[in-house]
From TrEMBL:
Main location: secreted
Keywords: Disulfide bond, Secreted, Signal
Keyword flag Hydrolase: no
Family affiliation: Belongs to the AB hydrolase superfamily. Lipase family.
Lipase domain span: 27-366
Example GO molecular function: triacylglycerol lipase activity
Protein location: Secreted
InterPro entries assigned to the protein according to its UniProt record, in alphabetical order: AB_hydrolase_fold (IPR029058), Lipase (IPR013818), Lipase_N (IPR033906), Lipase_panc (IPR002331), TAG_lipase (IPR000734)
Pfam families listed in its UniProt record: Lipase (PF00151)
Spans through the membrane: none
PANTHER family listed in its UniProt record: LIPASE, LIPASE DOMAIN-CONTAINING PROTEIN-RELATED
Signal peptide location: 1-19
Protein name: Lipase domain-containing protein
Length: 370
């Protein structure tokens, strides 16, 4: 992980000085998924200086590991177009399904994924599916960003197959994606949107900023990708902060029906120095500081599931500065929302990109300080 972060820095530096016509305006097509092009909205010489096509799905080969209350600790692998893999599993189409999607250099068996799985199954009777696309999520970052498009298409294809063969309903699916995984969720949702049906919910956990911020909605997670889209921003400082080794892997741009900005959304408390003895050496400490705020959102989301009675109430406000000045301490006509798992209880009433702010503690359960 540490080496991958340092390689990401190198990749971003290269991207900032290199843009080639040879890497522009290309297209690749994959059976069953359609064509992917670097034309149109995906061509952005400022925000996406290197144009890369997604790799072959047979190379990425994402896996879908099912956990339920009947098999909390042992995964059952669901395989697209293999009916037995589903019919002989504990998957039930009549209960809600949560798909957890990791980000850059992650994998479906990480500590965070396992914590999320356990928290979800403790909270409700769900199908919890851990998506592992680690064969496509590694360095270079530019290739991983491109691969999110194919992975999103494969997720959508998988959900449609479950609908057609096992009576599942996309409206009952909730995709929870961290970093690049948030945009994987968006691409899946975009493909699942029809005149009469939409994906139920997407929760974007600190959606990745580099190569996505200030791009067209087609390129990133946006409110049209599901019935309800909520996002939590914890590491939205500028990309320059990455070069300065102080974070900035997320984005500040609102991408959901409601966007939560704990502690302002740029960085998180207790992320300046690692806990004593938790990491080793200068490099370890530097990587910890760089990734602490970006990864904090994983702990925050899990905490909101495990602690439903804790206060995670956020207030609608135009900016963190106004919030800190005390100008937004009422819920007003927009209404307050609870950050995290219970965000879905908030009714957008046709609104999108509603910004919500709160200050939280720097340790678990990361509840509001009010």
């Amino acid at each position: 992980m540490r080496q991958s972060i340092l390689l990401l820095l190198l990749g971003l530096c290269v991207c900032s000085i290199y843009s080639s016509e040879e890497s522009t305006f290309r297209e690749v097509c994959y059976v069953g998924l359609g064509c992917f092009s670097t034309r149109g909205n995906f061509y952005d010489s400022v925000n996406r200086p290197i144009q890369v096509l997604p790799q072959d799905p047979d190379r990425i080969r994402p896996t879908f590991a099912l956990y339920t209350r009947r098999n909390v600790n042992t995964a059952q692998n669901l395989v697209y177009n293999n009916r037995d893999s589903v019919s002989k599993s504990n998957f039930r189409s009549n209960v809600p399904t949560k798909i957890v999607i990791h980000g850059f250099t992650g994998n479906g068996n990480s500590d965070w994924n396992q914590s999320m799985k356990r928290a979800l199954l403790n909270e409700g009777d769900y199908n919890v599916i851990q998506l592992d696309w680690s064969r496509g999520s590694g360095f270079p970052f530019t290739q991983a960003t491109a691969n999110t498009r194919v992975v999103g298409a494969l997720v959508a294809q998988f959900i449609v197959w479950l609908e057609s063969n096992f009576g599942a309903n996309r409206e009952n699916f909730h995709l929870i994606g961290h970093s690049l995984g948030a945009h994987v969720s968006g691409y899946a949702g975009e493909r699942l949107n029809t005149r009469n049906k939409k994906l139920g919910r997407i929760s974007g956990l600190d959606p990745a900023g580099p190569y996505f911020e200030n791009t067209h909605p087609e390129v990133r997670l946006d409110p049209t990708d599901a019935r309800f889209v909520d996002a939590i921003h914890t590491d939205g400082d500028s990309t320059l902060s990455i070069i300065k080794l102080s974070g900035g892997f997320g984005l500040m741009q609102p991408v959901g029906h409601v966007d939560f900005y704990p502690n302002g959304g740029k960085s998180q408390p207790n992320c300046n120095e690692p806990p004593s003895g938790s990491v080793g050496g200068i490099i370890g400490g530097t990587v910890w500081r760089m990734t602490c705020s970006h990864n904090r959102v994983q702990q925050v989301m899990v905490s909101t599931i495990l602690n439903p009675r804790k206060n995670y109430r956020a207030y609608p406000c135009s900016s963190y500065e106004d919030f800190k000045a005390g100008r937004c301490r009422t819920c007003g006509t927009t209404g307050c929302a609870s950050m995290g798992m219970r965000a879905g209880e908030w009714n957008p009433n046709g609104r999108v990109n509603v910004k919500m702010f709160l200050d939280t503690a720097g340790t678990a359960p990361f509840a509001s300080l009010e």
